[in-house]
Amino acid sequence: MKKVIIIGGGLAGLTAAIHLSKVKVPVTLIEKNTYPKHKVCGEYISNEVLPYLDWLGVNIGQLQATAISKVHFSTNNGKSIKCELPLGGFGISRFTLDQYLYQKAKDMGCLMLNASVENVSFADEKFAVTLDTSEVLHADIVIGAHGKRSSLDMKLDRGFINRKSPWLAVKAHYELDFPDDLVGLHNFQGGYCGVSKVEGNKINICYLSDYESFKRHRNTAEFERNVLCQNPHLKQILERATPVFEKPITISQVSFESKKCVEDHVLMIGDSAGLIHPLCGNGMAMAIHGAKIASEEVFRYVSDPQYSRKSLEHNYAYYWHENFSKRLKTGKGLAKVLQNQYLSNVLMEIAIRFPSILRYIIRRTHGKILTIENNAT
Questions:
Q1: Strands 66-74 and 27-31
Q2: Would you state the pLDDT for residue 375?
Q3: For 65, 69, 210, 222, which has the most beta carbons within 10 A of its beta carbon?
Q4: Which residues sit opposite 301 in a β-bridge?
C-alpha cells in the first residue's frame, strides 16, 4: 500500500488526514506545534461543507458551534447593508476545531509526529522528508498543508516567498452582547474586519490591515482606537467588547499572490495552495474542500495501478482551479475596491439600491454543497 505524508496539521491537513484514514490509506501527519492552539482566522465556515464533514464522521453539533445565517457589511463612513447568507454557516474557534480534528485523525489511525520539516526531496517516484530531528521519512505522496508562509516554501523555491507582502492580520476573542446568527464584515481605512460568535458565547474579531497603515501606530490598541473606530459600527463593537485574550495574536507577511497547487510533485492544500481575502469569509470552507479534492485524487492514485502520478497532479490542479480560481479572483477584485474609499462608497450605494448585488458577490466567493464521489470509498 502506498504511503502518504501530510506536512502541517491545520484545518486542511487534519481534514485530509481524516479522509485518507477513513479510506484506509496509511497517513503520517507532521505538525510543529502542539494542540490546542489559537490561530489568526475568521472562524466562520460556510454550510457548503457540512455533508462532507458528516461523511468524515465530524460532528460539528458536538462542538457547540453557532449557527450563522446573516451578514452585515459596512464601509468606513458607516453606510451598511444586511442580507441573508445563501447557504448559511457556523462559527467555531480554531482552538476547539483543530483539537477535535487532531484527536479524530489520531483515533482513526493516522500517525501524528510533533516535528518540523527541514527538507523535502523527490527521486525515483519516492519522497524523502527530512525532520528537524535529522530523521528521514519516505512516502509515495506528500501533501503540503503548512499554511500561509513556511521555511519549506523557501526550500521549494516558491515564487511568492521571496516577495514582501504588505498585509498584517490580527485576531482576538472578546465577551460582547452580539447576535448569534450574524457575521459582520466592516471596512476601515487600509483594511477590513470580521466579527462573529464562536462556541462558548465568545466573539471572534479578526482584521486585516496593510502594514503601512498599521506601523504609524504604537500598538494594536492605538491602531484600533484611531483607525478601526473611524467606522462607527466597529467603534460601537470595540468600545463594548471585553478582551478574553491577554493580548491579540498577529501574523505578518500575509500573501495573496498566486501560488501553484502542485509544487515539485507536492500537492498543496489550504493556504499553502492559495489564500482568499478574509473579507470573503470563506477560507476555512475552501481549506476543507481542497483537502477533499486532494484526498479523492490520492485515493484514486493509491487504488488504481493505471492512474499515473502525472494524471494525479494534472487532475488535482484542474479540479483545484475549477473550484477556487474564480473565488480568488473575486476576492482580489473586491479587496482592491474596498481599499479605495470612493469605490467602496459607490459599491455600497449600489448594494443598498440593489441588494441582489451583495448576494451575487457572496455566491461568487462560496461554493456549492459538497457531495461525495462514488470512488471516495
A1: unpaired
A2: 47
A3: 65
A4: none
